[in-house]
Amino acid sequence: MGQARERDLPGRIERVIAPAIEAMGYGIVRVQITGGARSVLQVMAEREDGAPVTLDDCATISRTISALLDVEDPIPGAYSLEVSSPGIDRPLVKRGDFARFAGFEAKIETRRPIDGRKRFRGKLLGLSGDAVRIALADGEAEIPYMEICRAKLVLTDELLAAAGGA
User: Fold this and answer.
1) Between these two residues, 5 and 28, which has the higher pLDDT value?
2) What is the pTM of this model?
């Protein structure tokens, strides 16, 4: 049970901090723990109003998370907290991300081969039930959401234009 609890630690932390972060007008993109002897808790957040995340936003979120985790104390031992924005070529983590960013190019990596491959790159077409649809150079693919281990947007002119950078 100790290993299962450790694997779900990012999920547990997200459940602790999400209500307060959301009440402040932010959404959590991803919670991740890395490192060895001294863990690093990485929290990626975005503004619900769609505006860019500023350094002041990160500091505000960091203070709130620190206060919440001081009370809950879910991480054994010492750790560092890093709060950041997802950036333009953001990771795609939640189901809704694949629908929200339909029309943009993405890279997807799966746990196991799907149709003989583990890496996909193409234009997101959204969701179909429990699968992510993607247009590839050689046709369309449906990738079961639960098989995705890593996904992110690809920095393209279209993505920059949509973000207001071009």
Assistant:
1) 28
2) 0.81
